[in-house]
Design goal:
Blueprint: H1 2-26, H2 45-56
Length: about 55
């Protein structure tokens, strides 16, 4: 009985801690995860390259 009981309890505690962590992480955010962004314009390749160069340099 100990062969499955202790690992099962440990697994459920692990899942419980992960759920609490996820709830705590996303509780105070005002950003909805699947809401489309308000800025729907597409970025040109040149602008993207400029932004990448800013981050690299």
């Amino acid at each position: 009985m100990r062969n499955w009981l202790i690992p099962s309890i440990a697994f459920f505690l692990f899942v419980y801690v992960l759920a609490i962590l996820a709830i705590y992480t996303y509780m105070d955010t005002k950003l909805l995860l699947f809401e489309p962004s308000q800025n729907s314009s597409t970025t040109s390749i040149e602008d993207f390259k400029k932004e990448l160069n800013k981050r690299i340099n």
